[in-house]
């Protein structure tokens, strides 16, 4: 098998902008509907509800051990790319609400569109050697080392997270949010497979 051709710096740059923009679009819809999200961001949201601490502070602290794992097990290149992706997503998420609004978006359709947008954004980032940190790092590590598909790892975490969310937020919000998380993880599970797509 021929060695895969690495992405150029320009290709990585456009992918990072595209991937983080898709994720930011999902976040904009999620914020509009008042839903919660999965993965490490969702954990930080729940912890901020329970503790009263700011989301930003909790999200930073929760991510720290995952970046250590990324640096030690997946390498500096992956870790640095992930830091860049997280910074881009943060910046675009701050800017986007000034240029985008929704007159009407039903919770069920919104949840599915949120899942699709974030799922596609994650696939773009994964294909260019980056993630948005947190559980995504652990999922990629387990896929590379243990052969467990990244999407299923993330889905398992989200199932536990949303079960805990019932104690913090209204059941209908959890239901809508869980639907979006399922879409995200199904997209990742189907489209980010080492035996089918990765390395070709």
From TrEMBL:
GO terms for cellular component: plasma membrane. PANTHER family: UPF0750 MEMBRANE PROTEIN YITT, UPF0750 MEMBRANE PROTEIN YITT-RELATED. InterPro entries: UPF0750_membrane, YitT. The keyword Oxidoreductase does not apply. The keyword Ion transport does not apply. The lineage of its organism: Bacteria, Pseudomonadati, Pseudomonadota, Alphaproteobacteria, Rhodobacterales. Its main location: membrane. Keywords: Cell membrane, Membrane, Transmembrane, Transmembrane helix. It is a multi-pass membrane protein. This is Putative 5xTM membrane YitT family protein. The chain crosses the membrane at residues 15-35, 41-66, 108-126, 173-190. It is found in: Cell membrane. It comes from the Bacteria.
